[in-house]
Every structure is written in C-alpha cells, then in structure tokens.
User: What shape does this take?
Amino acid sequence: MRHQPDENGTLAYRVTVRDDGEEAVLVPFSPLGIVRADADFTTGLRLVSQTERRIDEAYTLVHGKRARVHAEAHERTLTFANQAGNKVELIVRAYNEGVALRYRFPALRAREHTVWRERTGFRVPAGGTGWFLPYDPPTKKYAPAYENSFRRVRPGTGSPTGVGWGFPALFRAGTGGPWGLVTDAGLGRNYAGMHFALDTSATRTSTGGPYRFVFPEPGEGNGEGDVHPSSTLPWATSWRVIVAGSDLGDIVESSLVTHVSRPSTLTDTSWIRPGVALVDLNWTVLPNDTVRALADYADDRGVGLFFWYNSGGPHTTIQGAPRDRIYTPEQRMETFQRLHDLGAAGVKIDFFQSDKQERIRHYLAILEDAAQAELLVNVHGSTIPRGWHRTYPNLVTMEAVRGAEFYKGHEDYPELAPRHNTILPFTRNVLGPMDYTPVTFTDAQYPHRTTDAHELALSVVFQSGLQHFADRVSGYRDLPPAPKTFLKQVPTSWDDIHFVDGFPGRYIVLARRSGEAWYVGGIAGEDEHAAAVDFSFLPEETTYEATVIQDGSGDASFSTTRRRVEANVEDMIQLPPRGGFVMRLVPTNR
Assistant: This one.
C-alpha cells in the first residue's frame, strides 16, 4: 500500500498485489481524508511524524471459518497537521491478506466532537468487474437490512436505490487481474456503520469510481439518532478494510475482518456451544406458564431454546411483539435474567433498521448484557458482521442476507437463488457468520429450483455458528439415510477452511475441517459444471474414506458413493444445473 500527499496537502493511497514477482494495481490512487465539525483534514495537510511497528498476533475463535488464527502485519502511523494546527493520525496496516486503515484524533479533550463526513474512497481499475449490494433506502419496510441480492456491475455504476451500496464490495481489477473485497470492521460504540456511494462530484477518470465511504441515511431507525458520530478525544474510527489477493481463495479464506477487531471480552467461553437450530415456531404467542413447561421439556430432552424479541424501541416501525423489552438497559437485563433462570440457550433479536451510532451502541449493549446472562445471540433484520463475533463470541450468527425466507412473498426468488447462493461465499459470508436459514428441501409459497443435493451442500458452503436448518419437520424426517446421517454429523464450528474452486454466480466448492475430518461442499448456479476437487489440502501419506452424496436421477433424489482418496489425487464431480454435492472425509490409517 502506498500513500501520496500532493502539493495541496491532499492524501491519496493505492493498493498493489504482488504475485510471483509481478505487481498489479488493485486500487488506483484513491482519496483519503476526514472532516470534523471543527476541523477539516482533507486539504492543506503536512506530515508531522511517522512511526512503524510490527504486529504478530495469535488468537482463537469460538466459532468461525477457522479456530486458530495468526495475524501478521506492518503498521505505520502517519501524523498530519492541518493549517490550523489540528492533528490527525492515519494508521495503516499491511497484511498478507490485504490492507486496513483508520483515522485517530490524538488530542485529549473532554467535550464531544463530531465527524461530518469522510473523503475516504476507492477506485477500481478500468475494465474491472464488481459484485455490489444495493443499499436500502429507509423508506423500505425493515430497512436497512442488507437483504438485497448482489449485482454484477461495471465499476463506476451508481446504485439503483439512489442511496449507495452496502458492504461488502467484491471486485476484480480488469480481466485476469487481482481480486479485492472492501468493507468496514472493528466497529465500536464511537462510530457508525458505513456504506459506500459513487462520488458524483469527483473528477471522472478511466477508472471506476471513486466510491466514497458514507454515513447512514437520516431516515434510518425511524429517524431516531444522529447520522454523524460523536466522541470525546482521543478518538479512533473503525477500520476501512480491503481484502486483496491474486485469486478468489485469498478472498474466501481471509480473516482480515477479525484481525482488526478487538479481542474477546470474555475470559470464560465454555458455555458458548455452536450448533444447529431446528423448529421455528410460536414467536409471539407463548404465555408464561407455557414457556415454563416448554423449558422443562427442552431440558429433559437436552435441547436448547432461543426466544425471539423485537429490538424496539422507537427506532423500529415494526410492532411485532414481544417488543419494548430489549430497548433500555433495565428492560433488557430483566428479560435476560428471566431467560437465564428458565435455562434458555439464547435470544433472536430482530428489526434494528439502522446503522447509526446510536443503534451500534444498542447492538453492543445487547451482546454485553446477554453475555452476563450467558445467553447466545442471533440478530435478524440487522447490519453486517463487522468483527463482532471475535469481540463478543456469544454472537453466534447474524442475518444481513437474502435467505431462504424469501421463498415466501417473493415470486422471483426461486429464479434468483441458484446464482445468488454461489455469490454469497465470496461476499457476505467472508465477513462472518451468516444466518441464511439454509437446507430446505420442501417448498414454501414458491417452489425451489435448486436440487436437494444443492440444499444439502449449503450446510457446508455457508458458515454460521448457529446453523438454522429451516425446513419443516417432514423435510428432514423423510430424507434418505445418507443425507440424514450427514446432517447429524456436519459441524457448525470449524478448525480450518480451504477454497477449492469457483467463481461468483457460477459455482463454488469449499472444504472445511473439524478435527481430523474434512467436509467438502459444492453448488452450481444455472449452468452445469464439472467440479475438479483437488485433495492437495489433505495431509500427505494419509488415506481418507470419502462418503460422497450428490444429485441422483432427479432434482429431489440423491446418489451416494464411497471411495478412498489421498492428497495426490483429484476427483471430478459433475454438477448439474442448480445442483450440488457434499463429501465427508475421515482418515482410515490413523
């Protein structure tokens, strides 16, 4: 990463990717800068000082794409002063996985200051391709909730919603060029969640953009809360993150979002148990005496219970009950303590409708209070993961995705789903756990076009600390033995990940490890594909027994075979249109 102050004291940066000695531009020179209500740090800047340090950090995740993570980076802190003598620090980190930057105001001041806007942006080289998510205008019911579908666009394209695009932004720098994924991460109480919009005031160039990081829309959260974040000083923003690599595996396997996020706030995580959720019923109709009886029955059966709540408060227009029990600290702690006393496993909290600083504070207060009561948390109608599952490991999953619920009320979803499913592992699921509510074999209002093998494979392709298999009971009870056994065995917390092959919108093949067993899942979009599964990710001199479940003679049938594989072999799986497969590989000579 290179920064470049010009003769006007304006900052810019660019990002290059080096592969086999060759260097390619991923992000051409793009703008930097930030404006406080009392100080402008976009022009007239001069470099005052700079320091460097090396980061070498190992940490563990209770749930995620890998359990043990190692982060290495070179960090440079550049201190600039504007013409009035006010100072800002630009903190830049270069990882093997990409780059991250943020601003810090180092002065010590007790009164609150406000950030009006950022100049921070990014461009994409000419001829590139983007996969962007339209950001919701606040006039849309439930919005913003990151539940649109990703669109393949030419960089430089404005959003069809008129309010920009939601993170993450996946793009490729030209034909055959490197890949990048942009988002924000490490978000705390002192800032707002960002999205991005085409800067129409900037000088047009041959590159796509610039796109600028922007704050939430004024109408979000029913108009509650300020668009502009405020804090006392010193004050550091969240991180602007660009995952970078020469191939798509660098994007899919990246842990950069958690690298820049705060370490876990919990010393004891033994009570946090990732798992599978089944049976989604009776959100709002259970009286207290029924809840007690249900909790006792669940305890006898060794089953945990999650209870649904509306997050509101005045920030949501949705009146679904129970509501007004999670909004204030007093309401929240009373509710959480009652659920703890019942032996509940967790809460599912819905309808946040805003990325403003006030709502970010609400999210984090929920996670902290729930941890005190030893409750797991699943948030719906929500923002995207921004590294919170590292800081608050009781956050087992977040929605922020167009998922299987769209088979109800959305006639176009069956047509969209096969392609959409192959994009999510390259975009939304890179950031963190994703509650798509997958693996639905039976039909809802609008019938599936994905095959049953495709649906089965989503249990591996999609990652969530709480994997909610959302079909009706008969959908699982009536499965053949092999896929039913597979669903009983498949983990939801993983030790490692390996990208095998794929391309957004076409197909994806992923391998995940739990203990000594590997699970491989693959799905196709609209076109058939011959998936070459290279087993080089397996340890050498170890033979594995592979159980392979793939499409049978029809969309609702399976074919199961068993074979032995080793690291030096390659297997070919024929994926029909909208099809899928899974493998479970267990070592035989250990």
About this structure: Residues 357-372 form the longest helix (16 residues). The first strand starts at residue 2 and ends at 3.
